[in-house]
């Protein structure tokens, strides 16, 4: 067992990020600009409703305006895109978040692409992804940005480390892989077709679990002293790693809840404030 154990407290990291935003928000509001995040929810998925409500509450507590758009689940892709375009054209809206997932009949990628790049505060567009790959994104995907923020807050080394990412989604697995690569980690991306997954994970200095399966990553797979970042959230407040088993071998680990989740929301707020600041520069 490792001699030292770090519980990577996301609530603490999120608080630190939000504290840096207070003065920036005050500065904007003094100039007549109220940072505003528009959240779009399509349908009545209970988990999505909870996430949107949490984001709206976080905005309110920090002094950011939150505009919630709740659309019928029977809406068409074209109607959703039209709603997004209205928000693009509204100068009082600085950030747009389309809550994932949308109903299956909607072309989610087309809807994401409708979001104007300077309002893509969740980093979901292809242009935003490309900017992230080159290390120039103003708004990298929020969960990957949260993972990097946690590593930096706790001053955990990235350069030269072997990071294994389990998951390849375009808003989590892929962008966090690129962000770690840009920080000079050696990166391996694993997925549902990967052979010998336990052996590959066993080589990792940093493990990022983003597979969407409860308690999927086993403690026996983890190298002694590895850093484990659990980006999963499943029913019953269960992450993608077997927390108790992985805790034994890890040198640092994020809990679920109160790990990456709060920092993801903090990064969304940070991006919204930055978008508001950039909009002021353009006027």
Automatic annotation (TrEMBL):
Coiled coil: none
CDD domains associated with the record: NAD_bind_m-THF_DH_Cyclohyd
Entry-linked SUPFAM superfamilies: Aminoacid dehydrogenase-like, N-terminal domain (SSF53223), NAD(P)-binding Rossmann-fold domains (SSF51735)
Domain Tetrahydrofolate dehydrogenase/cyclohydrolase NAD(P)-binding: 141-279
Keyword entries, A-Z: Amino-acid biosynthesis, Histidine biosynthesis, Hydrolase, Methionine biosynthesis, Multifunctional enzyme, NADP, One-carbon metabolism, Oxidoreductase, Purine biosynthesis
Domain Tetrahydrofolate dehydrogenase/cyclohydrolase catalytic per the UniProt entry, residue ranges: 8-122
Reaction(s) catalysed (UniProt annotation): (6R)-5,10-methenyltetrahydrofolate + H2O = (6R)-10-formyltetrahydrofolate + H(+); (6R)-5,10-methylene-5,6,7,8-tetrahydrofolate + NADP(+) = (6R)-5,10-methenyltetrahydrofolate + NADPH
Pathway field: One-carbon metabolism; tetrahydrofolate interconversion
InterPro entries (alphabetical): Aminoacid_DH-like_N_sf, NAD(P)-bd_dom_sf, THF_DH/CycHdrlase, THF_DH/CycHdrlase_cat_dom, THF_DH/CycHdrlase_NAD-bd_dom
Any Pfam family: THF_DHG_CYH_C
EC number: 1.5.1.5, 3.5.4.9
PANTHER family with a match to the protein in the record: C-1-TETRAHYDROFOLATE SYNTHASE, CYTOPLASMIC (PTHR48099:SF5), C-1-TETRAHYDROFOLATE SYNTHASE, CYTOPLASMIC-RELATED (PTHR48099)
Family membership: Belongs to the tetrahydrofolate dehydrogenase/cyclohydrolase family.
Descriptive protein name: Bifunctional protein FolD
Lineage: Bacteria, Bacillati, Bacillota, Bacilli, Bacillales
